[in-house]
Amino acid sequence: xxxxxxxxxxxxxxxxxxxxxxxxxxxxxxxxxxxxxxxxxxxxxxxxxxxxxxxxxxxxxxxxxxxxxxx
Length: 71
Prior knowledge:
elongated; 1 helix; alpha+beta; four-stranded mixed beta sheet; about 40% strand
């Protein structure tokens, strides 16, 4: 890549959709056909980021997450 000094490269953002399922939150990442779960709302971002990073073999901080909560 030909990154120029002073210019940040745009970070790709994945959508994560979370919905309550009993005692857990069920999390889907539709674009990558991935699923995971979290125990609390606070864990949703970390769990989604973890499954994406493992699946793509990239660092967890190398992309963004947009979390949508289904009610």
